[in-house]
Design a protein that fits this description.
Number of strands: 2
Largest sheet: 2 strands, antiparallel
Distance between the termini: 53 Å
Shape: globular
Strand order of the largest sheet: 1-2
CATH architecture of the largest domain: Orthogonal Bundle
Helix content: 40-55%
Number of domains: 2
CATH topology of the largest domain: Peroxidase, domain 2
Structural class: mainly alpha
Order of helices and strands: HHHHHHHHEHEHHHH
Number of helices: 13
Radius of gyration: 23 Å
CATH class of the largest domain: Mainly Alpha
């Protein structure tokens, strides 16, 4: 009888192990065209919606690009950025580090289009990543094939955000270390900061280089324009006071950014450091000369960023609305 019990126990262990192994086998992780069977039109729908929104609101492309950085950099690429605040938890969207971020409601527009086609299938995390990919292409950047299969997180990471996100006023050493923590090397950092080729910077973020005294590192020819756009030493955060990151090609992701920062026309401290630090300057010069090199390094870095510690398989959930975890829906 004892031997029979032992045999049954051993079989139970084997069965449990096989179930565990099969569960692992069912999680392919991130793969190309993850929705090919469950929602074949998913990527086309996202691309179509991004194009429509860009046609109506040009700044959406800049928002999509900033979203992938702010979401995927902070511990996991799981759309935690998109969650609204609750009575107990602050949204990442409402922290100081998300100042100037906008157009979140249009991600909901994309989600609604997907829900009409394939209810409960496509994650907000994948929408966030693929909208960034298509937004990059819409402003003249490279088309970057990206894997899908992410699932959505259930909690905001506002409380730990500062531990992960590099700040434009930090030393370049800290910036490089934080990127290295998620596997992005120095040329990748230089390429990703080429995102400053498009969009604009609010005066709040750059007046410390103008007042009480002008930063002598700034190109004097550029200073006059910056002072004209930012006439107040303490600007109103809600006022429409900003400077375009690249006056030459403000709506185009290109390597003009690198020529600008080599000419001391970078708006942010990190832009200036990038062009003067011996660790990064060689890559800045190389990207200033070759847009192909910039695009190849940019695509590689975006790919690494998009694959940072995703939730896959049975982890997380597929939200019904991107701004709410399902338990709060």
């Amino acid at each position: 009888m004892a031997s029979t019990s032992k045999a049954l126990f051993f079989l139970a262990i084997l069965y449990a192990s096989s179930l565990s192994a099969s569960a692992e086998d069912e999680d392919p992780g991130l793969v190309m065209n993850f929705y090919k069977d469950s929602c074949p039109q998913a990527e086309d729908i996202i691309k179509e919606q991004v194009a429509l929104l860009y046609k109506r609101h040009k700044n959406t492309a800049f928002s999509w690009l900033r979203n992938i950085f702010h979401d995927c950099f902070v511990e996991s690429c799981d759309a935690s950025l998109l969650l609204d605040s609750t009575r107990r938890v602050l949204s990442e969207k409402e922290t100081d580090r998300s100042f100037g971020m906008r157009n979140f409601r249009y991600l909901e527009t994309i989600k609604e289009a997907l829900e009409r086609e394939c209810p409960g299938v496509v994650s907000c995390a994948d929408i966030l990543v693929l909208s960034a990919r298509d937004g990059i292409a819409s402003v003249g950047g490279p088309y970057i094939p990206l894997k899908t299969g992410r699932r959505d997180g259930r909690k905001s990471r506002a409380d730990i955000l500062e531990q992960y996100l590099p700040d434009h006023n930090e030393s370049l050493t800290v910036v490089l270390e934080r990127f290295a923590n998620i596997g992005i090397d120095t040329p990748g950092v230089v390429a990703l900061l080429g995102s400053h080729s498009v969009g604009r910077t609010h005066c709040v973020k750059l007046v410390h280089r103008l007042y009480p005294e002008v930063d002598p590192a700034l190109n004097p020819d550029h200073v006059q324009h910056m002072l004209y756009k930012c006439p107040d030493a303490i600007p109103d955060p809600k006022a429409v006071q900003y400077v375009r990151n690249d006056r030459g090609t403000p709506m185009k992701l290109d390597n003009n950014y690198y020529r600008n920062i080599l000419d001391n026309k970078g708006l942010l401290i990190v832009d200036h450091q990038l062009a003067t630090d011996k660790r990064t300057k060689p890559f800045v010069k190389k990207m200033a000369k070759s847009q192909d090199y910039f695009f190849s390094e940019f695509a590689r870095a975006i790919t690494i960023l998009s694959e940072n510690n995703p939730l896959t398989g049975t982890k997380g959930e597929i939200r019904k609305q991107c701004n709410l975890a399902n338990k709060l829906h």
